[in-house]
From TrEMBL:
Entry's family note: Belongs to the universal stress protein A family.
The protein, known as: UspA domain-containing protein
InterPro entries assigned: Rossmann-like_a/b/a_fold (IPR014729), Universal_stress_UspA (IPR006015), UspA (IPR006016)
Domain of life, per lineage: Archaea
Organism annotation: Archaeoglobus veneficus (strain DSM 11195 / SNP6)
Domain UspA: from-to ranges: 1-143, 162-272
Length: 274
């Protein structure tokens, strides 16, 4: 179901270490990775106005450097037994990521982040927010611990393997319902099925809906909570030892959606369904 993924990279160490957690990609069923680097024309034109070097020359030089870096990273993926190729574009990162994802017909977009809610670098901060809103396909945001030892960086996914214990948070919306197909595609995994009740919801009706969903899963624990969705999702994820949070994207204003909040504050990877 996640045969082909798009991996935008700014060549930061967090982006690189996300790639090196290749076993997680294999377990997700990934067969091909398309690496994408976007050269920001606006920045180059800004440099042009001060340095007297044409934007075209800067783009040519930046493309050459990017190609060498992407070749190295493509080799890393291929050594894991996963097909890999790269794409370089020029423009606005959010626009280009959405465009390439559409053109390449990818199953999902993978983006790296560090620590609790701290999206790595300006690129993976502001850009990831835009991608969450514009993407037509799921977005997977990893959460990495990167430790330094003897001058080298080591990658470790927060709280163990990504698919050890999945928290599937549903509000019964269309985006949440679509997520169920992905959850079922991870057959045999432990699943915590969570619904956060809103004011006015009937508990018996909620329980009936959860029972219907649970009947389609193998190893599942149902949880009903009350309160603010983001806060409760994070609380239950921690209490249940979830290693991946799956939540649908419902839109909303800037930083306003539950998915935005969860992505920013979660200690574990987040799979945002569309």
């Amino acid at each position: 179901m996640l045969d082909r993924i798009l991996f935008p990279t700014d060549f930061s160490r967090y982006a690189d270490k996300t790639l090196e957690c290749g076993q997680e990609l294999i377990e997700l069923g990934v067969k091909e990775v398309i690496l994408l680097h976007v050269i920001e024309r606006e920045i180059l034109e800004y440099v042009d106005s001060f340095a007297g070097v044409s934007a075209e020359d800067l783009i040519r030089d930046a493309t050459k450097v990017a190609e060498e870096k992407l070749k190295e990273r493509t080799k890393i993926v291929e050594e894991m037994g996963i097909k890999a190729r790269y794409v370089i574009t020029v423009g606005d990162p959010v626009t280009e990521i959405a465009k390439v994802a559409d053109e390449e017909n990818v199953s999902a977009i993978l983006m790296g982040a560090k620590g609790r809610g701290m999206l790595s670098t300006t690129f993976l901060g502001s850009v990831s927010e835009g991608v969450l809103r514009t993407s037509k396909v799921p977005v997977i945001v990893t959460k990495l611990k990167v430790a330094e030892k003897d001058g080298a960086y080591y990658c470790e996914l927060a709280l163990g393997k990504m698919l050890d214990r999945i928290l599937y948070a549903t509000d019964f919306s269309p985006s949440s319902e679509k997520l169920l197909d992905y959850v079922k595609g991870m057959a045999g995994r432990e699943v915590v099925l969570l619904h956060v009740m809103e004011k006015g919801e009937d508990r018996e009706e909620v329980e009936s809906k959860l029972d219907s969903i649970a009947s389609q899963l193998d190893r599942v624990e149902k949880v009903i909570a009350e309160g603010k969705p983001c806060k409760e999702i994070l609380r239950v994820a921690k209490e249940k030892g979830a290693t991946l949070i799956m939540v649908g994207f419902s839109g909303g204003g800037i930083f306003g959606s539950t998915a935005d909040c969860v992505v920013r504050r979660a200690e574990v990877p987040v799979f945002v369904g569309k």
